Amino acid sequence: MNHLERFHRVFEFKDVDRVPDYEFGYWTETIDRWHGEGLPFDKKTNRDIELYLGLEGWDCVERLPVRTGFWPNLPSRIIEEKGNRVIVDDGMGGIYIRPTDKSSIPHYIRHPLRSREDWERLKSFFDPDTPGRFPLNWDEVAESYRERDYPLGISLGGLYGWLRNMMGVERISIAFYREPDWIAEMMDTLVNLWIKIIRRALRKVRVDFAAWWEDMCYIKGPLISVRHFEEFMVPRYKKVTSVLKEYGVKINILDSDGDITLLVPGWLEAGINCMFPVEARCTDIYKIREEFGRKVLFMGGIDKRALITGGKAIDKELERLTPMLREGGYIPMVDHRCPPEVSYQTYLYYLKKKRKWIGRTER
């Protein structure tokens, strides 16, 4: 079997010669550590390392080269550099602090989207007809994907995730209550953007999945109420997934950290059916499968803490997930970026054990 056949057969609960060999990448600090433990210094990015180690993704799985978010990107500039941090103007009207000595999400001291006036200034950047969203040689690019033996996806983004990044958790939370029409307008703008790009792109090329990004949960559950999620987001997801289905796309992969349990029913209702990366300390993968059966697919689920402990903890973690692997509808990988507490030799041990477990013998 080739990579494309395995991808579909796993998610169709069919027999495969082996499961795809995916991982979710590495923190910068992890790569820095591994450079001192045997990883060649010229292997600097997630893709570099995945190719060097013979992995098949997740960073190596191709997506269409189309821009489905804020576009064109605006140049940022450093306002101040002090010690191990810099203060940055993001070009959109926001200002954030970024540490220079570790990996971290930006800490905004002023978000770019604070009011309807800001939205009026920024909403044109979500216009689907803005030049540059597709490559100039789009017809040639689309043709190059016609004959392939690997899965291809289209990246969409998220209704909550993107707006949360631009507004902050507190402001978007308040807006759901005080300015619901504004939230609806912004989400409708995103839906319109995605549908137009999907129709233009998928007329030319067939894809195997859509990738969504939300990051709308933390360790104890969702960042918004289930009621607001089901009212504002589920119907809009449906509009997009119904268009994807017109073009034969039945796998929708949703990336959210934290405990996703309460949101899974709404995602499934909306046609988003693959949960990723399924953080083990937060989400019980077996509980979700027991409740929803083969309606739900998974990628991830291997507890990163087992790799930090190493040795028998890794063996035990793979044993824990063996029934899920055997049932199907599941591509295992570490449940987030591999943390710097994991040594390079421990990671190689994990890969060796995992590859035997998933049936990969050619490495």
CATH fold category name: TIM Barrel
Helix percentage range: 40-55%
Spell out the helices and strands N to C. Answer: HHHEEEEEHHEHHHEEEHEHEHEHHHEH
Shape call: globular
For the largest sheet, list the strands in their spatial order: 1-6-7-10-11-12-13
Mean pLDDT: 96
Spatial extent as radius of gyration: 21 Å
- What profile does the largest beta sheet have? 7 strands, parallel
Number of strands: 13
In the predicted model, the low-confidence regions spanning at least 5 consecutive residues are none
User: What's the number of helices?
Assistant: 15
Describe the structure.
The chain has 363 residues and is an alpha/beta fold. The protein has 15 helices and 13 strands. Helix 6 crosses helix 7 (169-178). The protein is globular, with a radius of gyration of 21 Å. The two termini are 16 Å apart.
Question: What are the main properties of this structure?
Answer:
363 residues; 4-stranded antiparallel β-sheet; TIM Barrel; 7-stranded parallel β-sheet; 42% helix; 15 helices; globular; alpha/beta
